[in-house]
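We modelled the chain as a single entity of 563 amino acids. Its sequence is:
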Amino acid sequence: MPRKASSSRTVSKKNAAPAKASRAAAPRFDAVTLQVLWTRLITIVNEAAAALARTSFSTLVREAYDFSCIITDDKGQGLAQPPGSIPAFIGTLPATVKHFLDVFPVETLRPGDILITNDPWKGTGHLADVSVAKPIFHKGKVVAFAASVAHAPDMGGRTGSTESRDVYEEGFQIPAMRFCAGGKPDQTFLKILEANVRSADEVVGDLWAQVSALEVIEKRLLPLMRQYKLESLREVADDIHARSEKAMRTAIRAVPDGTYPYEFQTDGLLDTPVTIRIAITVKGDELEVDYEGTSPQAHNALNSAYCYTYAYTMYGLKCVLSPEVPNNEGAFRPVRVKAPVGSIVNHQFPNSGCSRVMIGHYLPFAVLGALGQVIPQQVMAGPGSPIWSVLMRGKDMAGRPFSNKIFFNGGVGANHRADGLSTMAWPSNVSLTPAEVLEQLTPCRVVSKQLRPDSGGAGQFRGGLGQDILLENRSAHPMVLAFLAERTKQPAPGLAGGKDGELGSLLIDGEPVDPKRQHILQPGGRILMRTPGGGGYGSPDRRAADAIARDRRLAFTAAGAKR
């Protein structure tokens, strides 16, 4: 975490009076039945996720797993999602279903309808994520929604670039609309979509994969409802939400009342860093997060829409307070998130949020920094995130156009019990693209890929290591590269005496370049991405001798270094 916290922190002891009871209604199902129903729901969304991944076309879905599926109740309240879901999508997708209902009231929906949008403010914060939802009918009425969101490999415009100045430059916009009406797809929409994106086969193929996931959910959910004689999911949802809410309130109540402010800077753009300021106020069994004082919205694509800010703030809170409690509407009820309108964490139309991960992925870290002042053993040192990625566009070895986005991760921060994980995505949990797949789908050769020795911050527990990835353009054509990279100026901070992680860097043909700009890689050219390491925890002098010896043996550190 950052080296020092604000001195304006205020803390008070808990009132000795009995804890406030949960606002939730009395449970309707016994614990065993509810657990069976919950497990069945998770099984359904897991099967839907597997169907989506296996029928998709792009590496973003098939290899990186940059997607999610959920079941909501008839009001759009989140109920179940796969355990491997992207944290942002867990927080944004239920809200998207509610936005759909604002446009298409439930009484206007028909069996076979599928709704679609990529509106950044009603979806996930940028145009590249396409959200779809399908109402599920039982006995003639809507009882639930199946929904999915996936990162498209392209959405036209300057998709993937931090240089987009507004949403129009960012790409093709899809307002909330019917993609399928009564089971019949809108062919005009598909033609317009295909004409406005690169790699149309992959974009449209992934969209149909999302539709297949919705159909899996529908086909599995209805037999479950018939088996348990459920007229709707409302009572099941009420019980699951109530239990999650109660557990979250219990976790909040364990934190001393007070206001915990925290502030730090990100790399920002060029020579202008971005300030993120957070204040978390705990009062009884409720909690408020306020981003007042955070930098104003940017004139490039670094902005994080409120939906994305909310999602990653909630993820940070869940990691610290109640990681075992299911992610659903109930767990979020005791929390309020405030973000100033027009700030970089709540930007307004038409400013772009194309590269919102460059801000949004810092927000769980902001939560750790604030709560680490009062519950330090429940947080970790600074991670080497946001995630790194490169969007490659050009012509492949056969002269055909291609567009692919590849992720590369840095190290995670250490905590009071263990070293940080190396080359692991956090707070997002997208997967790395294997070298073999990268070489098959792009005209790049993976010259080398290895851990970065000494990149993790020294400490009693060492920060996770970053990695070095060297790629070469094998084609006879130039390649356009758009990077997302942070922690090249502001390192991942250590905690409790631990040292900072090493900075990341980006080089093209041996020369350092600005990772916030698009670049051209000529035939035979090489790019070297050096991802940052995570922060260490505790004084390096307290590191165990066997841990030091293991690090040297595995070449994680240079000989003689205490890490």
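As a brief sanity check on the tokenised model: The longest helix spans residues 200-227. The CA atoms of residues 419 and 461 lie 5 Å apart.
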